[in-house]
Give the backbone structure.
Amino acid sequence: MQPNAKLEDYSGVWVVVERSESEIDPVVLELLGKAWDLAKKRNTSVTAVILGKHADQESKKLGIHGADNILGVHCPDVQDYEQEFYTRVLTELVHERKPEIILIGATPQGRDYAPRLSKRLNTGLTADCTGLDIEETTGNLLQECPTYGGNIMAIIQTVSSRPQMATVARGVFKPKIRTKASKVKVEKITYCFDATRERASTVDIIEQDGETRDVRDAEILVAGGRGMESSENFGLLEELAREIGGKVAGTRSACDLGWIEKNCQVGQTGHVVKPRLYIACGISGAIQHTIGMQDSEHIIAINKDPEARIFSIADTCIVADVLEFIPAFINAIKRFRNS
Amino acid sequence: MKIITCIKQVPANSTIKIDQVTGHLVREATPAILNPLDKHSIELALEIKESREDVEVIAITMGPDQARLALLEALSMGADKAILLSDIKFAGSDTLATSYTLSIAIKKLMNDDDNYLITCGAQASDGETGHVGPQVAEELGIPSITGASRASLDGDVLLVTRGKQAGKLEQIKTRLPALVTVTKGVNKPRLPTLHGITHAFDEGALLSVWNAATIDADEEKIGMAGSKTKVSKMYTPEPKKENITLTGSPKEIASKLASMLKEKNYI
């Protein structure tokens, strides 16, 4: 926050737009929906900020999902994401226009520049929020986020500085659609980015080798966590998935341990999935994981710990040793399918 | 050149609880360990040290006196020196205040020498924000590359590979001084050696304790005073959903479940 500015000088909710491929990242639309709620409570408006390339057809999409204004910053020298460009441009825009709240996707890109931006603005940043609301008495943003491995929830506030900054992972909020069409105000500015500082620059983008399994489109997912105990035991999940016509996914622990490829990870730092059936095998249910799968149509949880948190979001609970249960389950499926 | 590895001591497991009456964390009886990702950060520093002649590895942490145990672990893995930033004035720091404190200690350590690399774990297992690394870099005015799954140093060029989006990797490079945060995939941390442990316990010579005065900290920027975020409430999440529990032997449950899935047309 600028030294001579007051808290009440700041107003408006900003969402920073991110693209994946050439599309607007889904998290942006989810954030716009939440920003819309917050702006209503603060009696203010929502601005979507687009850095770099700006395509006009995107304005409509952003407007439908909750943006009242669009601020497009065009920079001839920057094609894609760049840490210093984002940090510098956003800092200058914030100093000039003083938004009260800034929401950023907790994507690899957002995690890269948001902490630097908060430092340069000398204001608070809360990571990976799972809930956002306005405190009536103070007007402060109430930022709910999991901590200590998701075992504890904290409400965090930025009380003495503005803007209040928060990052949110994909899938936490639902996108909203405006039924009443309203005019979106589009403003475009050009920014000349002169890189005087040493920059970190992208050398190459590499497509990963091997079959890319896409867990996002699967109707049935068989997911394993630390309770699977080994890479070999993940073979059981492959067998179950084949038998039931699904795909295999994993928690962050399972992916980090190398039991399954990283691109099959479900949760806050992986994919958000909504299959018809989600079978959670040996998964404790830390909130970082459940954020990514809690909207599945039907959730079956198998865990030997009756107190496991996963049972609180499951539809069907099975307290059993997963390694003993799955072979029996595979046999039973074979029997019933043919009956 | 110097490689500075910023580490953190964290609660050993996730069984940490809240006192339902006071609403405070019950920290007693929760053993503390070195943040798991920080082992990878130390390992990266040591691997680079071994690949060239001129490297000194310094582990640094901010915390209470018991955090020296995390530094001893770094020393026993092979770090050359360790610095514990400890002062009651640092208590209550959020990531902004923590990164300020670490940065000015690093400035003191480097004494205007620009020939350095900073390594950090991508995030700590307790707060899981991943903020402190990039914020230290910001305070020092150097580039940061987050979430490395591969990292190497060639001369003064840091080359990093990291995940971009599903199925895509990005190669990114920058010149020193720079900061990199690492994920598990970056390497396999070594275990402390007997020689390393003997070396670590010569801590009088290797471990320095610095307080707010040592690093000439601006008291407005450290601890509670320097923190912009405040925790206003903590609680244990209790999501509830109506569900059924299948009981019996594994075989009986398997049959009940398969029959239910058949009924619902899943199989």
User: Anything to note?
Assistant: Chain A touches chain B through 90 residues (CB under 8 Å). Chain A has two domains: 7-197, 215-338.
